[in-house]
Amino acid sequence: MRFRALANTRVVSLATYFAILLFNVYTLSLYYNQQLTFYIHPRYITFTVALNAISLVACAVGFLVLAWRMGTATSKSTTAVASPDSSPGSSSGAASSAGWRPSFTVLVAGLVLVAAYALPARTLSSGTADQRSANFNSIQAQPSGSGTGSGAGSTAGGGAGGDTLALFGADTSRLTVADWALAFNLRSTPASYVGKEVDVVGFVFHPKGTPEDVFYVSRFSVTCCAVDARPLGVPVYSPGWQEEFKEDSWVHLTGSFAETEEDISEPVVVTPKNIEPTEQPEHPYVN
């Protein structure tokens, strides 16, 4: 029975090595196909790739060594069974005919890997944004010097009021969706935004409860990985937008802010000058 338990333990270990190897290969393939940024912040790419490469080599060695040991143990067991000194009911014979039932951990890992390989790599979508709508347009100021401009983070962090757009300089067309979400969080008056130019890229998102004529050009803000992603967006007033664009499609929006009477959280909406379909950016998330 001890031999049987040892054999089952080794099979579980072998399956675990194999599952980790598949995960390493999958992660490295995402990097090779430039899709790893769909799941983690770009700053962690080098770290993630290096660890997965090391793990791949270590697990491959462990897998081969364990497979060799199992092969050697099996041949010794077969010899013992064939020996005339072995009784028909010996533990070795029982072990050779015993089945193996995979552990729950191995089953879960296998299902995750099957899903990972079967489903195409893709970014977070409006469905995820709806699930996290409680944090919609919730963004914290970056430390000084890490925002769009050196003044953006330091002043915002101090909770300054007044004309929030002065934090970002005069050329507002360079601001990202994250920059505008930060400005919205400072709760300035609509007059601070009216007439300011907007030039952003994002996916079409229509949160539940949003007026029919309004949609958001949205992006996700990621601090570490997709698990902590928060949806952000710039509201656009465009009656009949449903006939031109589908949710989750990527668009390039240009226009300017105007006051609105629509029932939305933001003080203004964008009056579009042009909205055109575009490709998903190489780095789909903003930081």
Descriptive key words:
287 residues, OB fold (Dihydrolipoamide Acetyltransferase, E2P), 2 domains, 40% helix, 16% strand, elongated
Quick structural gist:
By secondary structure, the chain is α+β, with helices and mostly antiparallel strands. It has helices spanning 2-32, 45-82, 91-97, 104-118, 126-131, 150-157, 177-185; strands spanning 197-205, 214-221, 230-237, 250-259, 268-277.
Per DSSP, the total helix count is 7
Low-confidence stretches: 86-100, 143-162
CATH topology of the largest domain: OB fold (Dihydrolipoamide Acetyltransferase, E2P)
The proportion of residues in beta strands is 15-25%
Estimate percent helicity: 25-40%
Characterize the main sheet. 5 strands, antiparallel
CATH class of the largest domain: Mainly Beta
Radius of gyration, in angstroms, nearest whole number = 28 Å
Give the strand tally. Answer: 5
* Distance between the ends: 57 Å
Order of secondary-structure elements: HHHHHHHEEEEE
- If classified by CATH, what would the architecture of the largest domain be? Beta Barrel
Protein architecture, described:
The protein is an alpha+beta fold. The chain folds into 2 domains: 2-118; 126-277, Beta Barrel (OB fold (Dihydrolipoamide Acetyltransferase, E2P)), CATH 2.40.50. It is 40% helix and 16% strand. The protein has helices spanning 2-32, 45-82, 91-97, 104-118, 126-131, 150-157, 177-185, and strands at residues 197-205, 214-221, 230-237, 250-259, 268-277. Strands 3-2-1-4-5 form a 5-stranded antiparallel β-sheet. β2 (214-221) and β3 (230-237) form a beta hairpin. The termini are far apart.
